[in-house]
Automatic annotation (TrEMBL):
<dbReference type="GO" id="GO:0046872">
    <property type="term" value="F:metal ion binding"/>
</dbReference>
<dbReference type="InterPro" id="IPR007197">
    <property type="entry name" value="rSAM"/>
</dbReference>
<feature type="domain" description="Radical SAM core">
    <location>
        <begin position="6"/>
        <end position="227"/>
    </location>
</feature>
<dbReference type="InterPro" id="IPR058240">
    <property type="entry name" value="rSAM_sf"/>
</dbReference>
<keyword id="KW-0408">Iron</keyword>
<dbReference type="InterPro" id="IPR050377">
    <property type="entry name" value="Radical_SAM_PqqE_MftC-like"/>
</dbReference>
<keyword id="KW-0479">Metal-binding</keyword>
<keyword id="KW-0949">S-adenosyl-L-methionine</keyword>
<keyword id="KW-0411">Iron-sulfur</keyword>
<dbReference type="GO" id="GO:0051536">
    <property type="term" value="F:iron-sulfur cluster binding"/>
</dbReference>
<protein>
    <submittedName>
        <fullName>Radical SAM protein</fullName>
    </submittedName>
</protein>
<dbReference type="InterPro" id="IPR013785">
    <property type="entry name" value="Aldolase_TIM"/>
</dbReference>
<dbReference type="GO" id="GO:0003824">
    <property type="term" value="F:catalytic activity"/>
</dbReference>
<dbReference type="Pfam" id="PF04055">
    <property type="entry name" value="Radical_SAM"/>
</dbReference>
């Protein structure tokens, strides 16, 4: 992977995201899509995917894209989509449970199609994985085989790990796995009560931030020791005391090159790369969109202008007693803490400069931007009957 280690500066992300559809062959405990009606779990047609990718590349000038599912490796035209993506200079990542890559031939086919890397969902270790996946199909063994296949093919891997009660004991072992398999980046994601979980007051597997930190703290220490980049997403900054350089709330996400560009993610319509000021206001909109709120304690916190605060559901469940405001001068630079993180940024590659002056209509009919609170492209409700396949 063509990485450079950056410190004291941060680049704006140039990464788009495209949901290829919500079909999946496991049932993760925390899945957002479990309650989506089966008839809406459709694969995005190839031509629509191409149109969206061209818009990402030639209008938004993105250089990378994440393919989301469901399980995107199961899309019937996935190799054509990946190949098209690579051909226009948009480097493709698949966010995957990875188990189908245990098949060496399938991994080789992704390599041949031009995949850039895989972001593997590693939520646990050993037998715990089958429990988390809700289906016992030699889950962890296949994931490890997949990692070995990708390493043999020199396809980079990053890890995603959702933080819930059921996997906290595995966090340090996940870091050890990453180290042993040459994985350089791990994203730890607080479980977000979005979508179908939004109105659930008592989610049994949801953990308090303080409970998570008993396990995440040692795991982050290990990451630092092993020089693994650890990004903790959606946790209030003060919950990561001593680890603030790893804290990525909605205000820091535009400066994580492994995260999504608010401009193309929501099809906001600004050609190319908007200004830092635009991303700051887009971050504030994201905070409101996802129901994060500042508590009373936040009102006097020096970090309040660069921190989302707590999720409304979280506060309703547990209150704000964990909040620990920062004293001192008001901080207004979103990268104030994260610029201290040693981050793997992409070295400038040889992707062709966008040259096509094509009119691009809105993505609303291709992806699922049905309302301001939606962010899962690829789910198309009210699809004409002829397209329901
Ligand atoms: S006190 Fe509030 S604003 Fe300050 S870091 Fe904590 S959650 Fe964020």
């Amino acid at each position: 992977m063509e990485y450079t280690i950056a410190k004291d500066r941060r680049s704006l992300t140039r990464r788009g995201v495209l949901w290829l559809g919500l079909k999946c062959d496991i049932k993760c405990k925390f899945c957002y899509d479990e309650n989506v009606d089966k008839k809406d779990k459709l694969w995005l047609p190839l031509d629509d995917a191409k149109h969206a990718l061209e818009k990402f590349r030639f209008y938004y000038e993105n250089e990378y894209v994440d393919f989301m599912g469901g399980e995107p490796t199961l899309h019937p035209r996935v190799f054509e989509i990946v190949g098209f993506c690579a051909s226009i200079g948009l480097r493709p990542t698949l966010i995957t449970h990875g188990m189908h890559l245990a098949d060496r031939k399938r991994a080789e086919a992704f390599k041949a199609a031009g995949v850039h890397d895989f972001l593997m969902s590693i939520h646990g270790i050993g037998e715990n994985v089958a429990r988390l996946h809700g289906r016992d199909v030699e889950n962890f063994d296949r994931q490890v085989q997949a990692i070995d296949n990708l390493n043999a093919l020199e396809i980079p891997i990053r890890f995603n790990c959702i933080l819930i009660r059921d996997n906290l004991c595995d966090l340090s072992a996940i870091v050890e796995l990453a180290k042993s398999k040459n994985v350089k980046i791990i994203n730890f994601l607080t479980f977000n009560p979005y979508f179908e979980w939004r109105s659930a007051p008592e989610i049994p597997f949801q953990a308090r931030h303080s409970e998570i930190m008993q396990y995440l703290g040692p795991a982050l220490r290990l990451c630092n020791e092993y020089r693994i980049e650890a990004n903790v997403r959606y946790m209030p900054i003060c919950q990561l005391k001593g680890f603030e350089s790893h804290a990525f709330t909605g205000y820091q996400l535009p400066y994580d090159v492994h995260e999504w560009d608010y401009n193309s993610w929501y099809d906001r319509g600004l050609n190319g790369q908007p200004s830092h000021e635009w991303y700051y206001s887009a971050s504030a909109e994201q905070k409101a969109r996802h129901s994060y709120i500042h508590t009373e304690k936040c009102q006097n916190c020096a970090a309040r202008n660069i921190c989302d605060g707590f999720h409304a559901q979280y506060l309703a469940r547990w209150g704000a007693e964990e909040a620990v405001p920062y004293s001192g001068e008001l901080i207004s630079d979103p990268i104030f803490y994260i610029k201290q993180q040693a981050k793997h940024e992409y070295a400038k590659g040889s992707a062709p400069f966008p040259a096509r002056a094509v009119e691009f209509g809105p993505l609303a009919n291709i992806t699922q931007f049905n309302g301001t609170d939606e962010n899962r492209a690829g789910v198309r409700v009210n699809l004409p009957a002829t397209r329901r396949k």
